[in-house]
């Protein structure tokens, strides 16, 4: 019964605000409305907090251009991004996200990816450089709509990332297995994080529409 109420409350809250909200306001409105709806439906503020953390980290849908991302971006924090607000109606989503948030932060820290320690520079003509601590990795990139295809030169592997620009922040979100590839290539201490990242990958695969994200700021 509670699950049904939760689904209705979320759907109602999101449907109410979507037509009138601007892109800049959408995150705050979603968080406020969904949190209130879920708390009323379940009486559990902890559950509401977990779910609304996902609501405010949606994938980007706007087309991105090279000129928008040129320059050096500094890693700020990880996030779990949802493909759409409909992901939240799934009973398994809240539990998966709650576990994944801690695992993601823990794994990235073990890999040396902490706020301020990772930088990614996008240059003209599709060239990119990733720096994590003292390690530098060469890459190339290509933009297709709202996706960024990052090719790691040394290992010749391409990672598809959803690219979202909002309020001066850059969010790069990808499937969890792609994060594994990225971390293994750019980190000098990736081995220390491999077990946690593998567990995270298995967990997030159980819920369609969830991505892991890295947020950057200039």
Mean pLDDT value: 79
Q: Tell me how many strands there are.
A: 8
Strand content: 25-35%
Distance between the termini: 46 Å
Describe the global form: globular
Helix content: 40-55%
Low-confidence stretches: 1-31, 33-44
Given helix and strand content, the structural type is alpha+beta
Number of helices: 7
Q: Give the H and E element order.
A: HHHHEHEEEEEEHHE
How would you describe this structure in keywords?
alpha+beta, 44% helix, 29% strand, globular, disordered N terminus
Task: Please give a quick description of this structure.
Helices cover 44% and strands 29% of the residues. The protein is α+β, with helices and mostly antiparallel strands and 218 residues long.
Descriptive overview:
The structure is a single chain. The protein is an alpha+beta fold. 44% of the residues lie in helices and 29% in strands. It contains seven helices and eight strands. An eight-stranded antiparallel barrel has the order 1-2-3-4-5-6-7-8. The termini are far apart. 37% of the residues are buried.
Topology of this protein?
Blueprint lengths: L1 H16 L5 H20 L2 H11 L10 H4 L1 E12 L10 H18 L7 E5 L4 E6 L2 E10 L2 E6 L4 E10 L2 E6 L1 H11 L3 H15 L5 E8 L1
Helix pairs in contact: 1-2, 2-3, 3-5, 5-7, 6-7
